[in-house]
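Subject: Interface between my chains keeps coming out wrong

I've been trying for a while to get a sensible model of this assembly. When I model each chain on its own everything looks fine, but I need the whole thing in one frame so I can look at the contacts. Pasting all components below, labels as-is. Any help appreciated, I'm running out of ideas.
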Amino acid sequence: MKFGIIQFPGSNCDQDCHHTLSNVFGQPTHYVWHKETSLGDVDCVVVPGGFSYGDYLRTGAIARFSPAMKAVADHAKAGGLVIGICNGFQILCEAHLLPGALIRNRSLKFICEHVQLRVETTDSPFTNACKKGQILRVPIAHGEGCYFAEPEVIAQLKRDDRILVRYVNNPNGSVDNIAGICNEGRNVFGLMPHPERASEKILGSEDGRLIFESILAISHRSVGLQPGRSWYVPAPHVVSPLRLSRRNLQRSAMR
Amino acid sequence: MKAKIIVMPKKTVLDPQGKTVKHALESIHFKGIKDVRIGKFMEIELEGGDKAALKKQIDEACLKLLSNPVIEDYEFTIES
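Reply #2:
Try treating it as a single job with all components included. I did that and got this:
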């Protein structure tokens, strides 16, 4: 699967994502500078963490107007996969690709620690390799990770099973313990925790791998990523997770 | 001409900064404080022109960039 990682001035998790996708998972991965109007040949776009444009005005507020984000919106509209991590999640919310907003942590502190996430649904291209209710240990590193949306939006997210991950112990005051949500088409995912920083044993946790293994599992299926058509067919036979063992993944990565 | 814009967190949105400042004010013995909310104040220098057109333009700027309607309310005045 081909990955494109957007780079804004102030992005600082772009190289972590590149390392994880290219070196750990062996996937063809390239950077997309924020001034590019095209993403190139990509199946999945990563909007990485950092402090795009210095977080001026509001987190993600200025980044969302960059030319690359217009291309990301078109990619999402065509059914392509998009994952926004940390600042990427904030940017996707500002760009209205995801509902709600991320505001200052309730404690007003920048929190940098490993947290436990509960996988709330496996019915998505980003969590299908997990088990429902599975606990993942993944780090967070943010000052503005408190998810907020009006009650009717939260109700809608719940109704549509779009809350993919919740915090076990809410670190930042997020409404309903929300750590990550997807869009209506289920092809755009935003989360505050950093799965790319938890994909190797040496980093203290490998649980973040499951997010990327889920994405890769999609490319191993017959469901094509065709422009103009959503990849997502919410039928049970498609949704049922195709479990990939580590060895299989490595083998496919070497191919 | 100058546009003066105030952006405030919505009433329904948690404002931990405001809460912390309220506690700080109380700790230095300011009495009778019911609530503190903290927002942003912006000034935009304008070249001038038709006030109604400018008003429309600033309103659009507030909606698109200067505020996030999901979490913030805004108001502004345009002064000569």
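Reply #3:
Confirming on my end. The interface with chain A takes residues 9, 12-14, 16-17, 20, 65-66, 68, 70-71 of chain B (CB under 8 Å).
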